[in-house]
Fold these 2 entries.
Entry 1:
Amino acid sequence: MKKFKSDEYYCPKCNSPLKIDNHIVLTAIPAGKIGGLILFEPKLGNFNIVKHETCEIRTGEQVDFLCPVCHANLGVGEETLAEITHIDMHGDEYKILFSEIMGEQATFKIKQGKVENYYGADSGKYMNFFGVGPDE
Ligand SMILES: [Zn+2]
């Protein structure tokens, strides 16, 4: 597997790289609105985001996260979680699941169906989901 100088993130559907410079770029679409691009911190557990000043997405709103390249919906099953692929500096591959509720702090690092690490004050809300296992 390829090695990189830093952590990389990819669309699980089209494998396009989603980290440009030092941000992960995703399209966020709230129900009934146009939405916009949102920039995320590549460091897991850092929940700061950047969006355009005209972007109407508000804290507490649920959004659909889409790949900005292939427009696939990154949502996972019934839960309000979305998924991207993460390859770290050592070439190890993980699934990263994160909340689709704006402002909610819940991110999970998954390796072979098991939660390897989790981040954020709201992550406890999803633990039952992982009790069943994130791989169906
Ligand atoms: Zn894609």
Note: The first strand starts at residue 8 and ends at 10.
Entry 2:
Amino acid sequence: MAAQVEQMKPLPDLDDPVSAPFWREAAQGRLSFQRCSVCGYLRWPAASLCPECWSPRAEWAPVSHDGEVWSFGVYERAFSAAFESDVPYVVALVQLDAGPRLIGKIVDVVPADVTVGMRVTAAFESFADDAALVNFRGLRSD
Ligand SMILES: [Zn+2]
């Protein structure tokens, strides 16, 4: 059993009431963030209080799925057995058009084709019945 646990990929905590809605919205094909009900700030990561005005009030708001690669790295070696079948793969910091920066894999791409400034859009990867990870794939520029 222990070996099985070691080979599992780390996944978000769906028992966390503050952040779980992010992953559950993704399962519905929506990229959503907490929007402060007082000042409108998009909170990322999700938090109990707004870092701008300290209000606890917020609602989950869907935003555009699009953004651009701000920085990235190519994993040529698996640092966990759970990722051995994935290498090589690209992990990027994506500057969303909506404001927040998200870290996610760039999928369906040859790693050498990824560039800073590349336009991408969210690509959801289910990891539970009602939760998904947010990855990205390239957007055609034409
Ligand atoms: Zn606020």
Note: The first strand starts at residue 32 and ends at 36.
